[in-house]
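Exercise 3.2. Students should predict the tertiary structure of the chain below and write it as structure tokens, then compare their answer with the key that follows.

Predict this chain's 3D structure.
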Amino acid sequence: MKKHYIDKTQNYYKSQKQAQAYLDMFKSKEYSKRIVSGEFSLLQNNLKILLKYFSNQTHYIDLGPGNADKSELILNRAKSKNKIKTYTAIDIQKIYLEIAKEKIENLKIPVEILLTTFEDGLKELKKIQNNKFIYLGATHCNFKPEEINQTLIKNMNKEDFVYISTELFSENITDIIKNYNTLNSETMIKPVIEKFNINENDIEFVVEYNNELNQIELGYKLKTQTQQFNKGDFLICLTSRKPTATQFRESLESDFEGEFIQNKSNIAFIGKKINNNNKICSNKQKRNSRTHHEVNFASFKTSFSDFVNSGDFLWSDYSIAISVNQIKLLLVAQYGNFTQ
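Answer key:
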């Protein structure tokens, strides 16, 4: 079986039927409980942290607002604290822009909508706005990290902040697949496959989990041979990454600097793009550092939790490499026994 990644994320929302299918997914209790509630809970419990990045001059940019419920939550609090100036929604689908416009105007915040791609919209705003708070959220995981990161940093000013989030990898893969294996999901991706002129009877809608890339893959498998593809080939129309916390951090650390917030099912980043000088230093440090993996010490919640890893790690404060076993001895001496 050969895999073919055949389209861009933006093409799954082009028609009104596709756009409505996406909105209908949120009406499903299972999808809402699994995919939406974790992100919403993360925001609700960390609004105080988010608002540190707002002022009365903040221009809030909503990339792909969908039903705009999460932006509505954030901006309702920002408005009550007089920490918002304007709201701009960017999307290629008019129905999402209209929903967002109605919700945010109800908060008495000036609204602008841009019917265009993320890149073109951000490029336009870069010329005329500073002090932006860009909300991308979990949409980040529908793109290749290096591509969407470049789109963001290329079009951000130094005073701008960005919010990026994801649902984390879970051992309950079957439940995750179930949430994507729906008629609404197929409705979103089906137009993408039509350009190949393949008979519907020759394909089967499939949702799989790619263990190597930690991502959900939606598409069609060929039941028969065609001119372009072989029997059994998987035409992947849509992907959604479900990284570990470490993978998520690593996908951002080369391009952004800021802080992370996390709950059991979701993680998010808030911060700025790295300026050129800092980026040069950061890349140099990475070339000189060793490969390492994250370890969680459940009962140890001091600054060491950012440094301790499952092998050797670089303790930059002292510019020396110290093994985990040595650190454990130091911790036991200082704090007594603890469990890993």
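Discussion points: Residues 39 and 260 are 13 Å apart (CA to CA). The chain has three domains: 3-10+172-241, 45-168+244-280, 290-335.
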